[in-house]
């Protein structure tokens, strides 16, 4: 079984790439969505979050107030590190459980772990290789402002709180560029996928989809 880590900074288009890989038969696990689930009532990180940040960051019925938390952590690196120190270990444990379960049932299945912070959160040890989705900063800024309805300052604050793409590229086996639309993205991904299948010849091609 191969486990691909798929990362990219905010606005890079990694979710689109993950969808394209799912169409090839990969099982995609979104670590960012798991981060939400572990912070929900009953989740693995829930009680620690309440104790660390206080009830003012939770609604009367107990749900994390995500916009309020975002306003705090994206303007304070110490608070962001405190949040990540709670969320990421919990997500990593859940990911390991899910990967082990798939390995037991479908040993030839390709798993894609998607997250913006795979490098920063120290997930590399559970991956076979890392892929980076790259988009230039000005492209990402426009996407983030449009998608998340943020002004320029808010979007830049979120972008600047992530490790630079050039630094992440040092860890990546492949870089998938996503500056010029879906057609070019699909062509580049097809080339990367072909090389990946050469790296892992035991992959069942009929299961993993077309080259």
Task: Tell me about this structure.
The chain has 211 residues and is α/β, with parallel strands linked by helices. It has one domain: Rossmann fold, CATH 3.40.50.300. Helices cover 53% and strands 11% of the residues. The chain contains ten helices and five strands. The chain has a five-stranded parallel β-sheet, sandwiched between helices. It is globular. The model is unreliable at 204-211 (pLDDT under 50).
Number of strands: 5
Q: In total, how many domains does the architecture comprise?
A: 1
Query: Strand-residue fraction?
Result: 5-15%
> If you average the pLDDT, what whole number results?
91
For this structure, the quaternary state is single chain
Q: Mind telling me the CATH class?
A: Alpha Beta
Task: List low-pLDDT spans.
Answer: 204-211
Give the CATH H-level superfamily: P-loop containing nucleotide triphosphate hydrolases
Main sheet makeup: 5 strands, parallel
Task: Give, in order, the helices and strands.
Answer: EHEHHHHEEHHHEHH
CATH architecture: 3-Layer(aba) Sandwich
CATH third-level topology: Rossmann fold
Q: Characteristics of this structure?
A:
211 residues, alpha/beta, Rossmann fold, five-stranded parallel sheet, 10 helices, 53% helix, 11% strand, globular, disordered C terminus
Produce the secondary structure layout.
Blueprint: E1 3-7, H1 14-23, E2 27-30, H2 31-38, H3 46-53, H4 66-73, H5 77-105, E3 111-114, E4 129-134, H6 137-148, H7 152-160, H8 165-169, E5 174-177, H9 182-199, H10 205-208
Parallel strand pairs: 1-3, 1-4, 2-3, 4-5
Helix pairs in contact: 2-5, 6-7
